[in-house]
Write a structure and sequence with these properties.
heterodimer; A: two-stranded antiparallel ribbon; globular; B: alpha/beta; 5-stranded parallel β-sheet; 4-stranded parallel β-sheet; 14 strands
Chain lengths: 289, 345
């Protein structure tokens, strides 16, 4: 298969994990989490630093998820009483704090110089040497994530999350522990974001704080909104669309003087048209509040 | 085999004797054409396109396959994967982070990599690369001469916290130590920062004899710097390369670092202005990068790198080092009425 197509499929797998996990927190649990990219960054840095210091990749992958999940729990611990816009602001602040730490904790993260030369994964002695191998690995992780989140959201636990999103007070009246539901859903969402971060770091082979900025938060939110809230399938399909649209535009021949900006303008227009035609996204069931 | 020949000639060095060829040289270019660093990539591409046009007039067959890396590692890898499918003979990449991300893949493909506008010390990690860019020590050496001329004994540093900023800062601090210049204060700032007054006030309160500023957007700082500090303000080459000093009076009286082609009266200045009256200084890097690639590809005598000690292009006669990179000599210039005046000792 063409190397370029393989590359795009790998990116789709990574961003699909990121998007479906965000949909769990935002769509199902109603936690307007703007800090998802921070979990992605935590996973990427954790995995890269551990592997570069001799840790086996599979353990580093697991720890990337666990470490991100711990931060997910801590974030909910600090923002438990916040809702909607206020929670969005607090979580956005969290992502800026993480970004600032990555930029300034230079002895650990090398700051703006980033971490170069991150090796390809070694899965229990099996070294991935090419992109085709990486694609299989990423696709397996993506499928596992999709299946697990699909099962969770279709279970009674998923229904409880949606009930909390729609009427938190009602859930409390029924004796449900909404704090527990919140931290569990946020930690689970963060865990998978950390896994995606690990994949990203070991695929791109270089990470720096500029890889985890506001534009990435917007990208992942765009995927979730275009796909529709409360739809794992929607997030997955939207990932394919959002990743591929700018790539299709690469085939439109334009002079180099307008090539960059013009592609971005066309990309923005296509997204606006999609949301104009389907305001709830492609497969959305609820409005973003 | 063709790109192997390009690599050998580029890295081993050669005397430049141009000969037209019927074989098309296909060059994959990854430039930052959009995003915050687009001014760099756009200027660079203007230069490359002009060089290609000139070379085509002389019978050269060159095809540029241009992709936007947005100065972002992920985008750079995506753009490189697309280039890969078109099998270019060699790769030209700009900006440090984007270039670092594609480095392992270019190495895997064994393609020659020509880097420009890359400040980070990337070259040592890959033997197939050539860096046609300002060197991290170039600013420091210009500052050293200026310090000696002006007898500066104390300085404050205001430096952007990016890969380029930190890469430049290290040799500058080394020079200040060697010259026994006291650093009265040092502040690193985020690239997205737009308010600089507080940090500059703090630095000014340390009463340095000079204030050294490295920012990718010096136009956003110069007003605050002049308001809060009345001593000697020194910028790196950015105001000159971007031609910011010509767009505002704010740089009046400040000192900037300038390559030869920016200084009126020099041979390089006339060549540059004639060729690029509207482009920024990064066009010179684009033009020279393309010219160097072509000359390396079409030379008769392959010798050792040491025989090809300099390349005399729009940037002036730049020395080529054994580490497969160049030095761009800077002169510290004072801005007067939106023009540059050489500082005499």
């Amino acid at each position: 298969m063409n190397a370029y197509i393989i590359h795009l499929l790998i990116l789709i797998c990574i961003y699909a994990i990121l998007a479906v996990s965000l949909n769990l927190a935002v769509g199902y649990a109603g936690l307007l989490n703007m800090g998802h990219i921070a979990f992605f960054a935590i996973g990427a840095y954790t995995s890269a630093l551990l592997v570069q210091n001799g840790c086996p990749y599979m353990l580093a992958l697991l720890l990337a998820g666990v470490f991100a999940a711990v931060f997910g729990y801590l974030l909910i611990l600090g923002t438990y009483r916040l809702k909607g816009d206020y929670l969005a602001l607090a979580t956005l602040g969290f992502s800026f704090v993480v970004s600032s730490i990555l930029l300034n904790w230079t002895w650990l993260t090398r700051g703006p110089l980033g971490i170069p030369g991150i090796p390809k994964p070694n899965i229990f002695g099996l070294q991935i040497t090419n992109n085709a191998g990486f694609l299989i690995f990423a696709a397996v992780l993506c499928a596992i994530t999709y299946f697990l989140l699909w099962r969770i959201t279709k279970s009674s636990y998923g229904t409880a999350l949606q009930a909390m999103r729609d009427d938190e007070l009602g859930m409390k009246v029924l004796g449900k522990n909404t704090f527990k539901l919140k931290w569990q859903s946020m930690a689970l969402s963060a865990f998978f974001a950390g896994i995606a971060g690990s994949l990203f770091a070991h695929y791109i082979s270089f990470i720096d704080p500029s890889s985890f900025t506001l534009s990435e938060i917007i990208l992942v939110f765009t995927i979730v909104i275009v796909g529709g809230l409360v739809s794992i399938r929607g997030s997955f399909i939207a990932t394919v669309i959002i990743i591929l649209i700018p790539e299709v535009l690469r085939f439109v021949n334009m002079p180099s003087s307008i090539l960059g900006p013009m592609r971005q303008i066309i990309y923005a227009l296509i997204l606006l048209v999609i949301l104009f035609i389907r305001p709830r996204g492609l497969f959305g069931e609820v409005d973003l509040e | 085999m063709k790109y192997l020949a390009v690599l050998v000639m580029l890295l081993v060095g050669c005397t430049a004797v141009e000969q037209p060829t019927n074989t098309t040289l296909r060059i994959g270019v990854l430039a930052s054409l959009s995003g915050p660093a687009s001014a760099y990539g756009q200027g660079f591409m203007q230069g490359m396109n002009a060089a290609v046009a000139d070379l085509r007039e002389r019978g050269a067959n060159i095809e540029l396959i241009v992709e936007d890396n947005k100065n972002d590692p992920k985008e750079a890898v995506t753009a490189y994967e697309r280039l890969r499918g078109q099998n270019p003979d060699l790769i030209v990449s700009t900006m440090s982070g984007a270039t670092l991300a594609i480095l392992p893949k270019v190495e895997e493909d064994k393609k020659p990599l020509i880097m420009s506008l890359v400040v980070a010390d990337v070259n040592k990690q890959y033997n197939n690369s050539f860096r046609y860019s300002t060197n991290t020590v170039d600013n420091a050496e210009a500052l050293r001469l200026f310090i000696r001329r002006k007898n500066i004994t104390s300085i404050a540093i205001y430096n952007v916290n990016t890969d380029a900023g930190l890469s430049n800062l290290k040799p500058i601090e080394a020079v200040l130590e060697q010259e026994h210049v006291a650093v009265t204060g040092k502040e690193l700032f985020d690239q997205s920062e737009t308010s600089h007054r507080t940090a500059l006030l703090k630095l000014a309160s340390t009463h340095p004899q000079a204030l050294f500023i490295y920012s990718l957007r010096p136009d956003q700082i110069v007003g605050d710097a002049k308001a809060e500090y009345k001593g000697t303000i020194i910028f790196t080459e950015i105001p000159v390369m971007t031609k910011m000093y010509k767009q505002t009076d704010a740089f009046e009286g400040t000192y900037v670092m300038a390559p030869a082609f920016a200084i009126s009266g020099t041979r390089q200045h006339e060549s540059f202005e004639q060729k690029f009256p509207d482009a920024n200084g990064y066009a010179a890097f684009g033009y020279d990068t393309m010219s160097v690639i072509w000359r390396a590809n079409h030379t008769g005598n392959v010798q050792t790198l040491s025989t090809w000690k300099t390349y005399d292009g729009l940037l002036g006669a730049v020395p080529i080092t054994a580490e497969r990179e160049i030095h761009v000599p800077f002169t510290v210039i004072v801005v007067k009425s939106r023009n540059l005046e050489v500082v005499h000792g």
